Every structure is written in C-alpha cells, then in structure tokens.
Amino acid sequence: MSGSGCDTIGVLEFDPCGNFLASGGIARKIRIYTVKSVQGERRIGDAPLALDHSNACDFFICTPAKLGSIKWKPGLGSRVLGSGDYDGVVMEYDLEKKMPVFERDEHGGRRVWSIDYCQSDPVLGASGSDDGTMQMWDPRCGDSGKCLAMVQPTKGYSTPVCCVEFNPFKGPIVAVGCADRRVYAYDMRKMLDPLFVLDGHEKAVTYIRFVDERTIISSSIDGCLKMWNAEDQKVLRTYKGHSNSRRFVGLSVWKPGGLICCGSENNQVFVYDKRWGEPIWMYGREPRHEHGFVSSVCWQQKDENQCTLVAGDSDGVLRVFNGKRK
Known about the structure:
By secondary structure, the chain is an all-beta fold. The chain has a single domain, classed as Methylamine Dehydrogenase, Chain H (7 Propeller), CATH 2.130.10.10. It is built from 2 helices and 28 strands. One of its GO terms (cellular component) is cytosol. InterPro entries: RUP1/2, WD40/YVTN_repeat-like_dom_sf, WD40_repeat_dom_sf, WD40_rpt.
C-alpha cells in the first residue's frame, strides 16, 4: 500500500508510554495511531509491514500549515502534542478534545524546524526557526506563552536553527543545531554565551539526540552522523553509509539497545550500533518517484528487550519493523 507523493511524512513521534504514534508533515494534518494498529509480527531483517498512513491512523487533526516538528509533552498519560509549523507558529493540541489549547507566534512567520520540551519541567518548551533564533517559552505565562529567553547562536549574522533538544538525563542544558554546521549548548538558567560548541560537521546540522547525560549524536547534510563527548567536545565516532546531502531524513536513538537509526536520500533505512561506524542493517525499496527518500524514523522506547522501529517516506508510506535485543 502506498500514499501520495505530496504527503511526505516529515516527523514521527511515539508518546512517552509508547502506546501511540503521531505523524506530521506537509499534508497539514497530525495523524494519531495506536501502536496495535501499526505493529506487525515481522522482525528486523524481514520484509516490513507497509501502511498507507492516511488510512492506518485512528484519527487526525487538521493544522493551519505544514508541520516542521511535533513533540509529545512529557509525562505518563500525556495526551498533549506540540507542533511547530511552516508559518512560524507553535501550537499545542489536546488529543482528547481534538483541538488546540495553546498558540504562540514569535518567529516572525519564519518556519519552525524543531520543538522540544524540558523533562524536568514539562511545561517549558523551546523552538528553533529559520529566523535564526531558539526561543524558550512557558504557556503558563499568559495566553500567548511568554518568551522566557531567546538566543541567536551565531553572533553578528543570522543562520537557521534546525534542531533543538533538552538534555533529558541531567542538568539544565539545551542544545541547538544550526545551519552554520555547529551545535551550541546553553545553560537554561542563563542563556547568554554557550557552555560549549561542537564543531566538526561540514554542512548544516539537522538533528541532535542525547544518548546519555554526556553523549550527543548529531546528524548533518554532510552525509554523516557524529557521536560527541559533551564534556570535552571531542568526536567519539563518525557514522557513514547513508546518503544525505540536502534533506531532513530523520534521526532516532533506541537508548536501551544502543542503536541509532536514520533515513537516507536513496530511500533506505539505516541502523548503526553506536559502537561501530558502519551500518549493521539497512532496508530499502524502489520509490514511486525519482527523488523519493526516507524522511523520518522513530524508535519506540517502551521495552528494553523488544523494539519497534517506524520509518516514513516521501511517498506517505509507513514501514514498521520489530526486533528483539540479543
């Protein structure tokens, strides 16, 4: 089964309990699936379960603009989903009521590429945008959510902020990946000069993921992933094999198993063991369109011994893989 070429799946997110999956993209819809509706009996290495995501979802919510990012609000039983869109607006949706409950627009109409929530204070959020800023905001501060802090990582000139990630393990740290090929980390309590800068990619940094309290994985359109020691800002390992020179192709880490997954512009899914720089597994198919690519990936974090990996592509197809930890 396949979807429409104009229905690229830009982002996939499992909820904190691992019971629901959300997808967003250029179709101006947030689609919600129960895990039961997307899981199959197949294992990594077997042919995946393929779903037309427009038909597999349990319900959807229409959004005012195309979506650059979605993120579940932290907390067990959370049914609030945040989104950042191409019009520069951050919104939160109550999925039980199927309606928006919060909206803020302080990025000057410039596309929001990424949003995230702070694990220690789940109401606190951050967004990164084409306007060159990362903004932290709190919906408790008035209807529009007061901007608590704003940073422009590059001094003297503006470059798009492509990704934002709070450290979910330890300390008040938020990391920002920029089109100037660097990762900047800030102390949330000060938000002045960065605590440290990770400089090693050759092109824009598109994704950041914390593996543990002192280790960061970054993805770039230079065609590689890098694992960093945040304490001394050294590159621990570089991962190569996938194709990525111009698009956002997704990045996800299965923390219990130490596996890293990303998409590719050759329409393949790549999995790396964090210990080795070469891929340990990949899956691909012929795209319906000449320039088809895998545009988003997400691991379910619920189980330490069994994993579910979901990949979405530019044709609007979800592919689901199941695996067990050896």
